[in-house]
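Continuing from the previous page of notes. For each protein in this section, the sequence appears first, followed by its structure tokens. Read the first protein now.
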Amino acid sequence: MGKVPAYMVVHDLIKLKIKDGTYPVSEFLPTEPELEKIYKVSRTTIRTAMEILKDEGLVEIRQGRGTIVLDSRAIQSLNKVTSVTECLRNRGFDVRTKSMYIDIIYATERLGKELNQPIGTPIARIQRIQLINEKPIAIIKDYLPYALVPNIEQFTNKFNGLYEFLEQQYHLEIESADDKIFAKSADFAESEMLAVLPGTALLCIQRICYKGAQPILSDDVCILGDQYELSISSRGRNK
């Protein structure tokens, strides 16, 4: 392996300090001369590192004022039904789908229970990797009764946001959802798909979506934990 360029070393160190709060969101980073002294590198190295951080959405370079730390995490409110894709778009990210694969499987006991379908019922399975600004952020698997989305396989790579697509193409309006949320460490396959190290923290959301009382969609999402957070508002005490 070759030696890591100095600008990447500086980039990694500053990124780590942004993530752990040493350089807080909405605050300016030390000036270029200060960063040169801290990291013992040239002005060119600092500027190259800053450009990469800017491209990653972590900082904003303000001419004549300095470099400010941005809140790069997408925050999804669970008080309304919204998808990961919609949430990312609303935060201004360029969202694209990579490696979409749609096939037809048959309901297992678990899927049958989740979707209220007999075991063996044809189920459309949609698997894809979601990118923001061309960087992998989430692995998404979706399951729907095939009778609700006939011929959906012909739309492979034709959409990014599934909820919007279902509304427009199949007139399926998601009215409510039940979520199960947990953390896990990325296994080898997940780390390869997301271009991170095995063991990286993932935020996982398992969701059942409903139209009325009928479950119509099962979602299984694993998303990079340092890029995403969930917001919940509660009212009243349950004793």
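Done with the first. The second protein uses the same format. Note its length before scrolling.
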Amino acid sequence: MREETIVEAAAGVHLVHGSNTNWVVLSEGDSVTLIDTGYPGDREQLLASLKTLGYAPEAVTAVLVTHAHSDHLGSAEFLNRTYGIPVRLHAAEVPHARREFLHQVSIGQVMRQAWRPGVLPWAVHAIRSGGTTDVAMTQPEAFPHEGPLDLPGRPVPVHTPGHTHGHCVYHLPEAGVLVSGDALVSGHPTSRIRGPQLLPKMFDTERAGALASLDRIEALAADVLLPGHGPVHRAPVREAARRARELAG
């Protein structure tokens, strides 16, 4: 893999740029926590990123998912079935991962926005990367308790609904890092804005909730933002959340 694809954000914390979606590898000794898995079509790159960092898939203690959209859940079922790796999400997102319902932008919504710069190229990429593939999980698990998880990196899930009902960010207090999924990003192919922002409104299940969740993000002490889309953002996360709120109006 190209070196610029994997970015070391802090000791034992790496952001990996997939085709259009990021995932995060938290390493501690011989074990790894994986946060998100990209599109189904990113699977080879996902496994290659672990190999580049010196880990086999068997080293992954758990997969944590920010939310159950196909570009984040893509290889979760594969990792669970093939290697027995548990996949954990917020309790409100577990039925979403099972596809008991689907809260994801529809083809109709995308077509109504097709006149916007970047939307059609993004949609074509999403389809080619498996965005319409069935990624339903059979055994997703809710977090076993509140607070830090007993996993490499000691991530702390923080419920940030809005993008989906069960969306979570993961706070790494010791590293001063926030893994923000799609609750706060630093870029997207359908946005001409650079830097901290919310995703375009069509991607959110409940826009008011996404805005309210910025308050929870603003309260977290971190100086490095690892978003689900866009580059690493190195600045106080509270300032990033404020900027996203201002841009959203």
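What the second structure shows: The chain has one domain: 6-247. The chain has a mean pLDDT of 94. We return to this in next week's lecture.
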